[in-house]
Structure formats: C-alpha cells, structure tokens
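Incident review: delayed structure delivery

Summary: a single-chain prediction request sat in the queue longer than the usual turnaround. Root cause was a stuck worker, restarted by the on-call engineer. No data loss occurred. The affected request and its eventual output are reproduced below so the record is complete for anyone auditing the incident later.

Affected input:
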Amino acid sequence: MPYIALTGGFGSGKSTVLGLFKRLGALTVDVDRIVHKTLRRAEIIRQITSLLGTDVIKRSPRGITLDKQAIADRIFDDIKMRRAIEGIIHPVVLDEIERIKSRRGRERLTIFEIPLLFEAGLDRYFDLTVAVYCDRGTVMKRLLKRGFNESEAIKRIKAQWPIEKKVMLADFIIDNSNGIKKTERQVKRVFNMITSALC
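Output delivered after worker restart:
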C-alpha cells in the first residue's frame, strides 16, 4: 500500500477528512502531534529560544515546552525567521515520519496529515498526495466560529500557499465546501480508487 500525504488550506477541514479515511480502514497520522512532541525536546527548545527568546516558552505541570501559538504569532510576518524555525523543526519531524513508516510497513493504507506538505517540500517522501479544498467564504465562517477574528484568520490563511496551488500539485482533490455527506462520498471514492488499483 502507498504512503499518502494529506494537506489543505488553514480551516479547510483536513482533520475531518483524515477521520473519514480512518473510518474506512486507513492508518492515519496527525503530523501536528509530532510537531507538539518535537517542541518538548530540550535541544529544540534551546535552538528556538536562542532565536525568539524565552517568551515563547510555556510552563505546565507536565514540564517546559514551546508555545506553538506564540511562535506562530512571532514568525507569521517574518519570512526569514519563519524559514529559520522551520529549518529546525522540519528535519526532526521528517525523521519521525520515516520512523513511523518503517514501523508500520505497507500492509495497510497509511495517511499522514501535513498542513505544510508542499511548502516544506515533504511531498517527495510520499507516493501520493491528497489536497482538501474549501472555498474562502466557508473557511472564513468556520474560523470565525472557532474564535478567530477576521484579520487573524486572513493572516493565517496568507501564511500558507494559496489553496489553488496545492490543488494543482495534488494527485487527488477533496472538496469540503458542501457538507459532510458530500465530503464522505469523495473520501470513499478516493480510498476505493487507490486500494482497488493495488488489488
């Protein structure tokens, strides 16, 4: 079975689509969770605080980690700094992705949700890619419901590549603009296309 990377724009519903693939029997990996674990590593904390300062540190009963939101706020408008931070985090995340792939093998379809798949050049490590598309109006409505104000939402959307570019590069596209039932049918079709081609 191939290794598949799933991506999409901010607020497009990537996690919803990942969950639908899981219900169909795919193994799924949320790479954001790997990022969160990476931000707890002492060496990563040292490297990032040397660039951004200690105000991006978050303390909790579980220990010291880095505040992902604070980092995002600091680097959204600074492309040079954003690339520097990504240069620290992405190699560690890629190592963990490769470790998961080697552990799980190819017995079942495995799908990794990676928001910055194309931006980080990680698509070359996967057999196929899926982009989740959602029209701008629907994305804005969802983000406002999640507590973002309009300027924050626009800022985060613009920090990623335009969704049209991701759609153009992806092997499969899922339009998540028109309700869960229509999205579910598309996910099932993509799942069946991939698995039936390998039978």
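Verification: The first helix runs from residue 14 to 23.
Action items: add queue-age alerting; document worker restart procedure.
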